């Protein structure tokens, strides 16, 4: 049976390998065996491999934050799912042909979902959904500003905000990304710069801008904070720059700007099972309705791990990269 692992931290396509491991036997008490259909390469996967994100306690280790699959077998005491059910895998070692996992660590999902979209639904859709809901009581007509707006989270957020009558200001790092965001329904798009706040306020005047969402850190974080209305909240959920988040003392003291951190592990998975299931039920309905989706640029087999990770690490992509261990034989 094939699986992907890494034995040292470093450049992803240099330190990861597709290996052969023993096939899985019968599921242990409380567990199930799942045939993995598709699994995405999330930015957090790459950061784990590079040693810049919470990861395994020891190496070598298996990988894979996001995946879906079909249940092959269940232990005698498992009642939550049955063989043939499609499930979203919540553990983090899913880049494999099959996985053994506790039945409590999956969410049953409908087979009506496109399998590639389903394989990308664990992290980015609930991240956008919860950040838009959990920090500010946004009203129709309010503005939200975000950087990395052409990311999967950014695109989801544009569509979710539009559905609620909330307007978005979307910041990117290159001019070539602007047109795609205009087509996606972004209200305003700017290329990041030192004078961002001046350009934003020139467009929106004194309109209420209470929420900023930062995936980058560093100076980009500071530019977002400069745009916020008094009392605004700046939510950091990523560190693409590798630099610390930045707000000035005047922003914190005089403008009452506050900095918050969002991590799905804390904001969703440490909550109740009921909240987790409710969140993914909402995400499922949004995908089925066509409200949110993520573009896919390429899919690879597990044995193509070096090509896949090199592709996922390149800038300027038009979509996500996924592994499809068992897609053809399941769909």
UniProtKB/TrEMBL annotation:
Record GO terms (molecular function): enoyl-[acyl-carrier-protein] reductase (NADPH) activity
Group of enzyme by EC: oxidoreductase
Record-listed E.C. numbers: 1.3.1.104
Domain (Enoyl reductase (ER)) ranges: 10-323
Keyword entries, A-Z: Fatty acid biosynthesis, Fatty acid metabolism, Lipid biosynthesis, Lipid metabolism, Mitochondrion, NADP, Oxidoreductase, Transit peptide
Localisation per UniProt entry: Mitochondrion
Pfam families according to UniProt: ADH_N, ADH_zinc_N
Gene Ontology cellular component list: mitochondrion
Reaction(s) this enzyme catalyzes, per UniProt: a 2,3-saturated acyl-[ACP] + NADP(+) = a (2E)-enoyl-[ACP] + NADPH + H(+)
Family from the record: Belongs to the zinc-containing alcohol dehydrogenase family. Quinone oxidoreductase subfamily.
Annotated protein name in UniProt: enoyl-[acyl-carrier-protein] reductase
Organism, scientific name: marine metagenome
């Amino acid at each position: 049976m094939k699986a992907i692992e890494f034995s040292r931290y470093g450049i992803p396509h240099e330190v990861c390998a597709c290996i052969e491991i023993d096939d899985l036997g019968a599921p242990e008490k409380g567990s199930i065996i799942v045939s993995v259909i598709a699994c995405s390469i999330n930015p957090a996967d790459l950061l784990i491999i590079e040693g810049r994100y919470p990861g395994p306690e020891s190496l070598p280790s298996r990988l894979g934050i996001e995946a879906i699959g079909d249940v092959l077998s269940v232990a005698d005491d498992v009642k939550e799912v049955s063989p043939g059910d499609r499930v979203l895998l919540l553990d983090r070692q899913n880049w494999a042909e099959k996985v053994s996992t506790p039945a409590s660590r999956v969410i049953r999902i409908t087979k009506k979902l496109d399998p590639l979209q389903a394989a990308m639904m664990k992290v980015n859709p609930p991240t956008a959904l919860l950040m838009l809901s959990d920090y500010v009581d946004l009203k129709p007509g309010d503005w939200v500003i975000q950087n990395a707006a052409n990311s999967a989270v950014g695109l989801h957020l544009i569509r979710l905000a539009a559905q609620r009558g909330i307007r978005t200001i979307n910041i990117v790092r290159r001019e070539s990304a602007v047109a795609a965001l205009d087509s996606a329904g972004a209200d305003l798009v700017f290329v990041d710069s030192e004078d961002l706040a001046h350009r934003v306020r020139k467009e929106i005047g004194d309109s209420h801008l209470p929420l900023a969402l930062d995936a980058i850190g560093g100076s980009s974080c500071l530019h977002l904070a400069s745009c916020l209305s008094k009392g605004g909240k700046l939510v950091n959920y990523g560190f693409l720059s590798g630099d610390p988040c930045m707000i000035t003392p005047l922003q914190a003291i005089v403008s009452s700007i506050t900095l918050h951190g969002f991590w799905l592990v804390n904001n969703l998975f440490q909550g109740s099972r009921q909240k987790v299931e409710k969140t993914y039920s909402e995400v499922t309905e949004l995908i089925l309705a066509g409200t949110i989706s993520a573009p896919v640029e390429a899919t690879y087999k597990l044995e193509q791990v070096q090509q896949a990770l090199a592709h996922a690490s390149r800038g300027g992509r038009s979509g996500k990269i996924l592994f499809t261990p068992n897609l053809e034989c399941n769909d």
